[in-house]
From TrEMBL:
Reaction(s) the record says it catalyses: L-cysteinyl-[protein] + (2E,6E)-farnesyl diphosphate = S-(2E,6E)-farnesyl-L-cysteinyl-[protein] + diphosphate
Broad EC category: transferase
GO CC terms: protein farnesyltransferase complex
Region Disordered, residue ranges: 23-61
Complexes and interactors: Heterodimer of an alpha and a beta subunit.
Organism: Penicillium steckii
GO biological process: prenylation
Name this polypeptide is given: Protein farnesyltransferase subunit beta
Annotated function: Catalyzes the transfer of a farnesyl moiety from farnesyl diphosphate to a cysteine at the fourth position from the C-terminus of several proteins. The beta subunit is responsible for peptide-binding.
Length: 507
């Protein structure tokens, strides 16, 4: 929790706890936790419950088929009451009616597991609309144009839509954002940024085709990336901008998909003598971003966060096979402990960092870390099909699917952070990506469709649907599988890479 200047932190120790010996869990519950929880629950459930009976009845009412783990507050509570624990309690109160399937603001039908259906039609309408004009209030999003395109295309693709009819529109929208000095800006006339370039390249990959691929000036992209490379191995996100793991991940995605030369472009070779390749020192830089908690921060010395963990692990998984790159640059047991702590009960969703709240977008940022970790633990793949022995899944697919379908669907379409929040295209994209992650097992094989050796392990991923007998969602709600590194369909990543491999080299 950040300290806000001028605002006192609201930390209260219950008197009983200070005066007497430590309380048993049962006593703690009785003294404050339970009372407070009940009050919150009564207030909130009263508003949402479809039951006409009193508070106590409403509290116990839930759709049939939901395990108690997902309908009751946690039995263990920290006796220290702070602003953080208050926020967590308020979040629980907001989520519980949705997890139980008894909120008025929730659409059915509910299946035998008490899980609501995916409102596919509403979400499709929401995303197609997100590709159209915006009211004046959205002017701040003018620097996120490639992102707005990417989030919509990715969400539509996940829900099975063919986005190739949007090809020409996507090309003409992105064309003015490419700068003659390399890369894509966030909008017309804006400086190139690695995040907007990443979103632009992935959007072009999704619509596919020669016209889309030919839009990219690979030579200036390569030269621009050279200008962003830093002498500690990392990348700045733009010239004169910050250096962080987003830069490392976005640069690696672009280099590997566009089949750019690994050599530093001319000029940089003399400035960064120890780093003859764009990828040199990058894994070591990422290693320095692992924190005392085991998670990964945006840059060395700052706080571990799920979004940065994904960037770092996906970047390592591009640089080489995860069982080599992740295993040798991360403390895996510590990383596992921190990543496991991101999934909460009863919510089922993931938080981005210690002592913070679940948020639907971490269904991807944290959820997509898991296949990369699983691959690192599974070791070198022995065949072109699924591994015969695997550590298997290391997070609760059921919990995440319940959080997404019960708490993250806005009744008017689009997906969101949590109940009470508006939908937006960022959350719609990443919540759906997370849902897809719960519906598939991702694994690496020993074969890649690429002609070149470099990055072959990044292109060796495959997936198969989870076992329907273990799924809590309806089979009709299964989404398209996304590549765990490139966050687009496997085929889209492969086709783009193969097209550039067949082009004449940049130098
Ligand atoms: C905290 O927000 C969020 C961050 C510190 C990281 C945000 C970064 C991303 C979402 C993705 C970056 C990746 C790419 C590829 C550009 P918060 O304090 O509002 O949320 P919290 O309370 O959940 O931590
Ligand atoms: K958040
Ligand atoms: Zn979010």
């Amino acid at each position: 929790m950040p300290l806000v200047a001028g605002k006192r932190r609201n930390v209260r120790f219950p008197l009983a706890h200070l005066k007497t010996a430590p309380l048993t869990t049962a006593q703690q519950k009785q003294k404050h936790g339970h009372q407070k929880q009940n009050l919150n629950l009564k207030n909130r459930l009263g508003n949402h419950s479809t039951s006409s009976s009193g508070g106590e009845m409403a509290e116990s009412a839930a759709q049939p088929g939901i395990p108690a783990l997902f309908t009751q507050p946690p039995s263990l509570r920290d006796p220290l009451v702070t602003e953080t624990t208050d926020l967590q309690d308020a979040t629980l109160s907001k989520c519980l009616p949705f997890l139980k399937g008894i909120s008025d603001a929730q659409k059915g039908p509910f299946n035998a597991n008490g899980v609501p259906a995916l409102q596919r039609g509403d979400h499709l309408d929401y995303l197609y609309d997100a590709l159209e004009d915006y009211p004046a209030g959205f002017v701040a999003m003018d620097s996120s144009r490639p992102w707005m395109i990417y989030w919509s295309l990715a969400g539509l693709t996940l829900m099975g839509e063919d986005v190739t009819p949007l090809r020409q529109r996507v090309i003409e929208s992105l064309r003015p954002m490419q700068n003659p000095t390399g890369g894509f800006g966030g909008g017309h006339g804006q400086v190139s940024h690695l995040a907007s370039s990443y979103a632009a390249i992935l959007s072009l990959a999704m619509v596919g085709g020669s016209d889309a691929f030919a839009l990219v000036d690979r030579k200036t992209m390569w030269q621009w990336l050279g200008n962003l490379k830093q002498n500690d191995g990392g990348f700045r996100v733009c010239e004169g901008g910050e250096e962080d793991v987003r830069g490392a991940y976005c640069a690696s995605v672009i280099i590997s998909l566009l089949d750019l030369p690994l050599a530093q472009p001319p000029g940089r070779q003399n400035e960064l003598p120890g780093l003859s390749k764009l990828t040199d020192g990058l894994a070591e830089y990422l290693s320095r971003c692992q924190t005392f908690e085991g998670g990964i921060s945006g840059s060395p010395g700052s706080e571990a966060h799920g979004a940065y963990a994904f960037c770092a692990l996906a970047c390592l998984s591009i640089l080489g096979p995860p069982e080599e790159t992740i295993a040798s640059h991360m403390d895996l047991p510590l990383l596992l402990s921190w990543l496991s702590a991101r999934q909460y009960a009863p919510e089922g969703g993931f938080s981005g960092r210690t002592n913070k709240l679940v948020d639907g977008c971490y269904s991807h940022w944290v959820g997509s870390c898991w296949p990369l970790i699983q691959s690192a633990l599974d070791g070198h793949p022995q065949s072109a099909s699924a591994p015969s022995t695997t550590v298997g899944s290391l997070f609760s697919h059921e919990g995440l699917a319940r959080y997404i379908l019960s708490c993250c669907q806005h009744p008017f379409g689009g997906l969101r952070d949590k109940p009470g929040k508006h939908a937006d295209s960022y959350h719609t994209c990443y919540v759906l990506t997370g849902l897809s992650a719960t519906q598939h097992h991702h694994y690496r094989t020993d074969s890649s469709p690429c002609a070149k050796e470099n990055f072959s392990s990044a292109f060796s991923w495959q997936s198969r649907p989870t076992n329907p007998e273990e799924d809590v969602f309806e089979q009709g709600d299964r989404l398209t599988a996304f590549h765990p590194i490139y966050v687009i369909p496997h085929q889209a990543a492969e086709k783009m890479r193969l097209w550039y491999e067949a082009e004449s080299p940049v130098v």
